[in-house]
Design goal:
Order of helices and strands: HHHHHHH
Radius of gyration: 16 Å
C-alpha cells in the first residue's frame, strides 16, 4: 500500500496495532523502527541502522525537551526521575545542555549535529 501522507501513515499504523489507539512515539527509536517495518518502507533497513544506534544520542534531550515544551507535572516527574544515558547520574538540565561532549562541543550543539547527520544519511 502506498502511503499518501503522514496522516494516512498514522491511520495505517494504528490499524496494525492490537492495543494502540494512537501513533507511535516517533522520538523513541524502537517505536520508529517498528513503524517503519509495519509501513514496509523501502528504506526500513537504513532507518533501523540509523535509529538503532546505542546509546541513542538524544535520549537525555527527550526528557528535557518534553519538560520545556509541555511544562506538565508528568514531564517534570519524568525529567526529575531520568538518569543520563552516558552516566547513571540524575539529569541536571543546565549541566546536560552546557557540558562538553566529545570533540569539545557543548552537548546541545552536538545534538543538532547528530540529528542532521541521521537525517542526511536517511535521505541519501
Amino acid at each position: 500500500m502506498k502511503i499518501r501522507n503522514r496522516e494516512h501513515a498514522g491511520h495505517v499504523l494504528i490499524a496494525q496495532y492490537k492495543k494502540r489507539t494512537n501513533e507511535p512515539d516517533w522520538y523513541l527509536p524502537d517505536d520508529a523502527i517498528a513503524a517503519a517495518g509495519k509501513l514496509s518502507l523501502t528504506n526500513e533497513k537504513k532507518i533501523a541502522a540509523e535509529l538503532g544506534v546505542t546509546p541513542w544520542g538524544l535520549s537525555d534531550l527527550r526528557h528535557l525537551r518534553n519538560f520545556i515544551s509541555h511544562r506538565s507535572g508528568r514531564s517534570a516527574i519524568n525529567l526529575r526521575n531520568a538518569t543520563a544515558v552516558a552516566k547513571a547520574d540524575p539529569i541536571i538540565p543546565t549541566a546536560l545542555c552546557y557540558e562538553y561532549a566529545l570533540g569539545g562541543m557543548r552537548r546541545y550543539e552536538s545534538w543538532a549535529g547528530f540529528m542532521k547527520g541521521v537525517a542526511k544519511r536517511l535521505v541519501d
